[in-house]
Every structure is written in C-alpha cells, then in structure tokens.
Amino acid sequence: MEISVIRQPVVDDLQAVDRLILRRLESDVVLVNQIGHYIVSSGGKRLRPLAVLLGARACGYSEAKHIDMAAVVEFIHTATLLHDDVVDGSNLRRSRDTANAVWGNEASVLVGDFLYSRAFEMMVEVNNMRIMDVMSHATNRIAEGEVMQLLNCHDPDTTEDRYMEVIRRKTATLFEAGTRIGAVLANSPAPTEQAMALYGQSLGIAFQLVDDALDYNASDEQLGKNIGDDLAEGKPTLPIIRAIEIGTDEQRKLLRVAIESGGRENIDAVAAAIASTKSIDYTVELARKYAETAQASLTALPASAERAALAQLADFAVHRTY
C-alpha cells in the first residue's frame, strides 16, 4: 500500500498542517529558523500527524483544531529527533546530514527546546485541558523512554521486556497520544477514546519494531540513514537480543562483544548471525501482531474512508522498506 493512497482522505488537512508548521516555525532568531526549516522540510513520512488527522476524522470530528494538534505532534517528534541525533552522535537522517552535523550539538539541542516550547504554546491555544493533560504526560513519558534506552546501551543482558518498555515509551507514546487526541477533540465516549489509544500504541510499537529490523536488512539509500547505526551506538534492539537468546555460543559471544564495544567493525558477522537465527523474521512477525491489534481496535469506530486508511496505515507500518 502506497502512503499516498493512505493520505488521500485527509490530503487537504495534511496540506493545512504543512502550512501551519511553516508559519509557526517563524522566529526572529535566524538560527532557529534555519535549523527548524532544515529538519522539518527534510522529508519524513509524517505518520504521526497523519494518524492524528485520520483519527479525528474517523471519530467524526469536523472542525479544525486537529490541524493544530497534528502540527504539535510533529513539532514534538522533530524535537526528539534533534535531541536523539545529539545523544547518538548520528550524522545522517532522511538521506541528509543531521542538524548537529551541520550546526553542532549545542544549536541542535537548543532548537529542539524551541520546538518543544512552541508545541506547548500551540497546545495552550487549543484551550482544552484534557489535551494538555494527555500531551504533557506523553512528553514526560517519551523523555523517560530516552533515559531507559540510554541505560540499555552497551548492555548485552538487555531483555526483550526491557527493550519493549523502551519502545512503548519512546516511540509508541506519541502515536498513542496523537490518536487519543482525535477522539478527545470529537468528544468521543471513553470506550472509543481507549480504542483509539490502543490503536496508536500498537501502531507505534509495530512501526519501531520494523524500524529496528530495517537497521539490519535494508540499504543506506532505502533507510535514509546509515545501516548499523543501532549497533554502532551499542543499542541492543530486538533482532540482536533475539539472536543472543537463541544463537550458538560462538554467535552469542560475537554479539555480546559487538554490543559492549559498539561500532560497525563486525557488522557483516553480526548481520549474518541475526539472519541465521531468523531474528529479523521474529521481529517482523511481532510487529505484524501489533499491527493486527491496532486494526482490531478500529471496530469501535463507524465504517468510513478514514477508518479504512487507519487500517491501511497499520499495514504500511509493517510492510514498508524505509
């Protein structure tokens, strides 16, 4: 399923979001404008704002505040990318140099802070305390996930449960908050709001599982960043955690050393161990189960083009190659 087809029911809304993002990026500090425009305009799938828009429309929302909240979610996501790239020492994202590679770590962190604060300014303007509650808790939970991931780095004893808790917080939380907000804006009953939250959380988990699988079985050109970045940073993601769990003694020793030391020196041998243990298949199969959970939650909504697009979005999250 092409992402352009999934976007079709809300294509006008997406264009409105893009216009709003460009307008709200404006600052009288030149460097803020430069870095903000650089990273926001650098491509990306815009899946999080898309989920907000589709979720709101699928819940029957017919006004315009979902445009603001979709932009808020994209600003928060972009802020996390700026901070992540500094923490991880990344130099390539979306097939372009990262902002920290161009302007330095200090500027990237500070502009990330600007995007966070601009997002909260925009939330205040929406004037809905329930939305403020959802988004403030989500932002806090994302930060906790970042810290938990840092604690897992270079630790070959990281378990699947610890890894899953990181991606629930770090990635799935913003998807969950975005789709929940769609229901909140539409004044949906509590069961519908919970169903939309489950959809977003499950979608986010599926998305991150596939992202981590692609780090070992895509190309730099497909992925838009360096293959093996997770290994280079000493991040124990599910493909390598699973391979350590079921691999041979020799494979386990190789993989443990690779996580402890980081770097890409043994990427070929690591990839071979992951392939021979079918750890990519294991990861993608788990992603597929979460995508099915996301799709099943949509039965709480009436049939519509937007609901169908949300189901297709869950499929896209699993079957994409970038």
Automatic annotation (TrEMBL):
Signal peptide: none annotated. The keyword Cell wall biogenesis/degradation does not apply. Gene3D superfamilies: Farnesyl Diphosphate Synthase (1.10.600.10). Keywords: Magnesium, Metal-binding, Transferase. Belongs to the FPP/GGPP synthase family. It comes from the Bacteria. InterPro entries: Isoprenoid_synthase_dom_sf, Polyprenyl_synt. Transmembrane segments: none annotated. This is Polyprenyl synthetase family protein. Its cofactor is Mg(2+).
